[in-house]
């Protein structure tokens, strides 16, 4: 007999009382530090949705921090503001999973932290709630599949999976009551603000701030659902798997309920990867390859840079109309050209006049992007985003690089070092110290207090 929604929720509530592996603790710490650092940078530079912070929102002397600002807001408003800011750079984490990809920290962390700060939650309670949310998001993503964004559909995975997962996390932070947790999950799933992908469609090309606002609305919605459940509001008994429920409405034929039967404690949070470069995750391996080829060969010698990625990325990241920073971050031709010409890939390369740099835009004409069925198959099997890049010149093939992702082949110490450098590039020294201290030991009460 298939697992019931109540049993699925109950297992995640029980997860919050079990020991957390050191590996999962490290992942959670890194995801929190990454999310807050990105949001802080975006707000301080008024990028994306943060340019509209004051629209209909009250900030001043309230309960929860607004990252990147000295102001505070109500928990619901803080969740919205911090979620929107965390999405603004498209520099956030990605779930690497063959059944589904998407972001989760940008919804889960703002919602849980806004509630935790208001309630004075302990570092252990916050850690356990985050663990529940990230584990639940994997199960929901796998059960959903990816047909919600095929054949012309454009539902955002982040909106669909992270929202009920984050509501469950917030409910666990409030109480270990299964009824409250089921109600929170159900209210969130059945009243979901299902964001759409049209802004990022190459054929539409608006690359507008609704991308950021969608995540903010999801974070706020998540927390509101948990608070309503705490107040006694009820949802349906089978909001995820029931008739006309979440799976039936959004899966579009790719649902597989058996993934909900996997024990949440067996979910490996190492499936979440942060980004090394400030662009869409589908660009990451290609950026690293192009950057290294630029350093080794020199862009001036390269007549054609051939980029092979999974087929779906070659289509969704194909835009060559670079109208703003978001279009640049979602353009394989731009991201690769920039990395090769500049021999780097940093925040400044995707901002202001840098997206109009003639040397980069002209080099884009030398960049070809090809979808590779074999790389698509590896993605579906392993969840990774591989790339192969070939540099051609007058004398033939000058060099090639191949990576499965931005951290491919790095040792743990190297990966930690480049992550620390990322955080330090996003925020000032004192904030970086606090974030990296939390990343290394998120269970430490003092580390959490400094973030609050």
UniProtKB/TrEMBL annotation:
- Stored SUPFAM superfamilies: 2-methylcitrate dehydratase PrpD
Q: Which Pfam families would you find in this protein's record?
A: MmgE_PrpD_C (PF19305), MmgE_PrpD_N (PF03972)
Describe the location of the MmgE/PrpD N-terminal domain by residue ranges: 20-253
> Which InterPro entries does the protein's record reference?
MmgE/PrpD_sf, MmgE/PrpD_sf_1, MmgE/PrpD_sf_2, MmgE_PrpD, MmgE_PrpD_C, MmgE_PrpD_N
Q: Where is the MmgE/PrpD C-terminal domain?
A: 277-385
Family of the protein in this entry? Belongs to the PrpD family.
Its recorded name reads: MmgE/PrpD family protein
Protein source organism: Devosia rhizoryzae
């Amino acid at each position: 007999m298939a697992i019931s929604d109540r049993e699925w929720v109950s297992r995640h509530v029980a997860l919050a009382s079990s020991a957390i592996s050191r590996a999962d603790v490290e992942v959670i710490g890194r995801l929190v530090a990454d999310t807050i650092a990105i949001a802080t940078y975006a707000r301080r530079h008024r990028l994306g949705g943060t340019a509209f912070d004051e629209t209909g929102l009250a900030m001043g002397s309230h309960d929860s921090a607004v990252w990147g600002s000295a102001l505070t807001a109500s928990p619901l408003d803080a969740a919205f503001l911090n979620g929107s800011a965390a999405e603004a750079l498209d520099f956030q984490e990605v779930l690497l999973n063959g059944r589904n990809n998407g972001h989760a920290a940008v919804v889960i962390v703002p919602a849980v932290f806004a509630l935790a700060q208001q309630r004075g939650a302990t570092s252990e309670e916050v850690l356990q709630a985050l663990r529940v949310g990230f584990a639940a998001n994997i199960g929901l993503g796998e059960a959903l599949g990816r047909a919600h964004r095929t054949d012309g559909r454009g539902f955002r995975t982040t909106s669909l999976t992270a929202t009920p997962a984050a509501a469950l996390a917030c409910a666990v932070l409030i109480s270990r009551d299964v009824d409250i947790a089921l109600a929170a999950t159900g209210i969130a799933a059945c009243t979901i603000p299902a964001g759409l992908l049209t802004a990022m469609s190459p054929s539409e090309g608006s690359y507008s701030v609704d991308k950021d606002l969608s995540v903010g609305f999801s974070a706020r919605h998540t927390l509101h659902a948990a608070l309503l459940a705490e107040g006694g509001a009820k949802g349906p008994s089978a909001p995820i798997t029931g008739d006309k429920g979440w799976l039936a409405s959004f899966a579009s034929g790719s649902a597989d309920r058996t993934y909900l039967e996997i024990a949440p404690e067996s979910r490996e949070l190492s499936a979440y990867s942060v980004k090394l470069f400030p662009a869409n995750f589908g660009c990451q391996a290609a950026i690293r390859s192009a950057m290294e080829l630029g350093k080794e060969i020199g862009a001036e010698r390269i007549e054609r840079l051939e980029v092979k990625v999974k087929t779906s990325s070659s289509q969704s990241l194909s835009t060559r109309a670079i109208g703003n920073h978001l279009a640049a971050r979602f353009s394989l031709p731009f991201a690769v050209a920039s990395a090769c010409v500049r021999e780097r890939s940093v925040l400044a390369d995707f901002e202001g006049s840098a997206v109009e740099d003639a040397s980069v835009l002209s080099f884009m004409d030398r960049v070809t992007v090809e979808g590779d069925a074999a790389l698509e198959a590896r993605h579906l099997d392993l969840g990774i985003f591989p790339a192969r890049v070939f540099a051609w010149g007058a004398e033939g093939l000058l060099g090639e690089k191949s990576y499965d992702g931005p951290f491919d082949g790095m040792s743990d110490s190297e990966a930690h070092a480049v992550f620390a450098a990322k955080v330090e590039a996003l925020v000032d020294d004192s904030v970086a110290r606090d974030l990296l201290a939390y990343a290394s030991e998120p269970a430490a009460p003092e580390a959490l207090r400094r973030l609050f």
